[in-house]
Amino acid sequence: MNLLSNLISGLSLGSVYAIIALGYTMVYGISKMLNFAHGDVIMIGGYISFVMTVYLGMNGWVGLLIAIVTCTCLGVLIERLAYRPLRGTGSLAVLITAIGVSYFLQNVALLIWGANPKMFTSLFDGVKALRLAGGKLVVSPESLFTIAANIIVMIVLTLFVNKTKAGKAMRAVSEDNGAAQLMGINVNQSISLTFAIGSGLAAVAGVLMCSAYPVLTPTTGSMPGIKAFTAAVFGGIGSIPGAMIGGLILGIIEIFARAYVSTELADAIVFACLIIVLLVKPTGLLGKKVSEKV
Amino acid sequence: MADRILKTISTRGLKNAVRGSEYKREALISYGILIIGYIVLQLGAVGGLIGRNLQGQFVPICVYVSLAVSLNLVVGISGELSLGHAGFMAVGCYSGVLMSRILLPHIGFEPAIVLVSMIFGAVLAALAGFVIGIPILGLRGDYLAIVTLAFGEIIVNLMNVIYFGFDKDGKLKFAFNHAIEDIENSDRIIAGAIGATGTKTMVTFTMGLLLCLFTVFVVLNLKNSKQGRAIMSIRDNRIAAESIGLNVRKYKLTAFVVSAALAGMAGTLYGLNFSTVAPTKFNFNTSVLILVFVVLGSVGNIWGGIIAASILTVLPEVFRQFADYRMLTYAIVLILVMIATYNPTIKARVKAVWTKINPVKKKDKDKGKDKKRKKSGKEVA
Q1: Would you call B150 and A93 a contact, using CB atoms and an 8 Å cutoff?
Q2: Residue A6, burial from CB neighbour count under 10 angstroms (0-12, 13-18, 19+)
Q3: What ipTM describes this predicted complex?
Q4: What are the angstrom distances between the C-alpha of B238 and each of A183, B227, B232, B345?
């Protein structure tokens, strides 16, 4: 039973990582940049939802919706103002800019909400936990919903990317930016759309994460951001199913390491697993191997 | 012969070959900045122009300058993105502090302790660089970046569970994942999440300057050596470099290990400058901070990194009174500077303005170039 309950919390944490990792992986796929500000968009999403529910007394689900809309706009705005001027100038310049944006978001949150941790009210406040096997196995509604949300997001996103015109355009841009432009695809629009989707998902992940671990500070987003990034690389960066698998595996490893090895060393074990996977498969589990041309 | 080919492969190497004075100029500017900066700060401190708070930043400035210069070896000269430089600094810091505590009862002359500790820190950091570098240097680009990031996080995580201290008989004790039992607070050397503690501070600004000079000396000489040209040619065209028989891994590893060793020395200096250094000091943010110095100082440019590191270490200290807004301003300035320096349209415009202001100099430069260049230059104009 203990094993099973750990597995479920692992899957739940992994689902949060997977949803965040999707944002990383899609942005990387389309614009080849490491968006280190992604983790802070999660934090902003959490705060927006917090303000809506606690300060303004709205329903949690309305708060979630507003957080999604705000983060979507924020993501598009960040891309437009900070990343677009630097497109095509090499990854280092954009990386540093992304770090600048990350500092910016953290400090804006610090100025508005202060450094004291805020207690987040869960989306499922008052909903009873599910008790299975005669009360031995307790499944919280948060973990159930997180896992379900992850599956829904994954299905919808896969359908979107593979079946719709906009999704096809996104794939074309990530395959070959220049050729896509020649074919009449609006590259700017595709990239904006990717940022919008990624940031919207970040808001979902933020609210889900804060429901499960209800402490909110301006740096809440950075560690999950780094872990989700690790998950994206783990699964093969640029691949959508890779992000899901990477996220889930990483979540399970982390919870198991915490339960059976040591709480302090859990992060070290997660990162060590990443290094080992990359040594065996240098482009991640599902990553494409790109051969170099002379 | 091989050296000749290397110069041809590496475009910057070619420039070096044509203008041998390039190296001398870079060295002169780098050493000049360091020494002049030292003299100015020292005079300011003696004359009472620089307050105590800022004086406390003198050694950290030296530490960050050497970190920036050593990271430049990996990012600028070897062309690999490293996000775990603070990890090597951490290894150097802990091992250096440990060594200094062991030596303290035996050696009375403090600079000697610092020197030995620094060498020990450098050796262990180099070892860490070697162990990490061997498997990962086969990875490319962003994958290498994420592995270095992971390495940095692992180091911080491990530091949280490491304990060193002296027991009652003065013997060195080590514990992993649990605190050492019945130990006096003053006998602790490294204590988990508290970090390196009870260190006797023995670093002076002059030692910091010497470390900076040494770091610049090593990096510049490596850059201008046969190995350096090999490393740069691998950066500029890996396949061409491989095809003339260069051992890519070996050269990349050289740059990585040397950089790690130098970061370890800087880490030791940092550790011996404070009585307590917590492991969180060496997390991802510090690695990123060093990378920001390198990029803002222009990648590959040694003295640019020196200036960026010193200014960006001093500025937050100077603007401490604006407390909350200073980091926000820092973030905005960082974004704006990146856009201003790298945006292609702005770059072209600045260049156009520059040629308008300074047309004579442009002509002089054109004279030296071959016909083909001149022609294309005219077409653009």
Answers
A1: no
A2: middle
A3: 0.85
A4: 32, 15, 9, 30
Counting one residue from A and one from B, how many pairs have CB atoms under 8 Å apart? 128
| pLDDT one-digit tens code per residue, B8-27 | 555 555 555 545 577 888 88
From first CA to last CA, the distance across chain A in angstroms is 56
Cβ distance of A89 and B343 shorter than 8 Å: yes
CATH number at residue B153: 1.10.3470
* Contact across the interface for A233 and B143, Cβ inside 8 Å: yes
Task: Say if B295 falls within a structural domain.
Answer: yes
Do residues B22 and B110 both lie within one domain? yes
Looking at the domain assignment, is residue B333 inside a domain? no
Distance of CA B198 to the CA centre of its chain: 27
Does B157 touch chain A if contact means CB atoms closer than 8 Å? yes
Q: What is the pLDDT of residues A65-85, one digit of tens each?
A: 999 999 999 999 999 999 998
User: CB under 8 Å to A73, separation ≥6 — which residues?
Assistant: none
Domain that holds residue A133: 2-280
3-state secondary structure of A237: coil
Q: What is the CATH number of the domain that holds A91?
A: 1.10.3470
CB-CB neighbors (< 8 A) of A272 in chain B: 150, 154
Cα–Cα distance, B257 to B251 (Å, whole number): 10
With an 8 Å Cβ cutoff, are B177 and A283 in contact?
A: no
Contact assignment for B335 to A82 by CB distance below 8 Å: yes
pTM: 0.86
| Distance from the A101 Cα atom to the nearest Cα atom in chain B, whole angstroms | 7
Domain-embedded: residue B338: no
Q: Which domain holds residue B379?
A: 343-381
Residue A212 lies in a domain: yes
Instruction: Indicate whether B316 and B355 sit together in one domain.
Output: no
